[in-house]
Design a protein that fits this description.
The structure is a single chain. The chain has seven helices and four strands; from the N terminus they run αβααβααβαβα. By secondary structure, the protein is mostly helical. It has a two-stranded parallel sheet. The chain has a two-stranded parallel ribbon with strand order 3-4. The chain is globular, with a radius of gyration of 16 Å.
Length: 171
């Protein structure tokens, strides 16, 4: 969805580094691997932000560069839940990033669409997916950044996300 949103807003997006890491290093990851993944995710986010700020590409017609969003596929809440779910603990560095990093909006994807298998995805069963979703939702409820639950089919999800981003940009 991030790529679709970035295309819609003529913007850019930061992919999830974990996919690259796991494709390169395999699915047999450790607790320390999750810290490395988190650090690289933040590094990619920072690089994208610097490139985004210095970009001279034209934003949407009638919009200023300040009104063009940067989309980030994942963040430290995902890393926190991942660490805690798999290893029952979370790196302090990740927790510190949660406190220090600020975002404008979270899009929490519900589990109401079919799970699509790929070589990296874990937890195909709906019960586990629902349990993880509730961990993410709990994180959203207990922080101050606005968030929305994104559900429905792929087209509906994109429409809901665009509507939420439009509202954010107009406020």
């Amino acid at each position: 969805m991030c790529a679709q949103l970035a295309a819609h807003y003529r913007s850019t997006w930061v992919p999830e580094y974990a996919r690259e890491h796991l494709l390169t290093n395999g699915n047999d990851y450790t607790y320390d691997d999750l810290l490395l993944i988190a650090q690289k995710q933040i590094e990619l986010e920072e690089q994208a932000m610097q490139q985004f700020i210095s970009s001279t590409s034209a934003p949407l017609p009638g919009a200023s560069q300040e009104n063009v969003p940067l989309f980030i596929d994942t963040d430290m809440y995902v890393m926190k839940v991942w660490c805690e779910y798999v290893f029952k603990k979370c790196h302090p560095w990740i927790l510190n990033q949660l406190v220090n990093r600020k975002y404008d909006l979270y899009l929490l994807c519900n589990v109401d669409i079919a799970w699509i298998k790929d070589e990296l995805r874990e937890y195909p069963d709906l019960d586990t997916r629902a349990k993880l979703y509730h961990h993410y939702k709990d994180a959203m409820v207990n922080q101050s950044t606005p968030w929305i639950d994104v559900s429905g089919d792929y087209e509906q999800r994109l429409k809901v996300a665009i509507s939420a981003v439009d509202k954010l940009l107009l406020d």
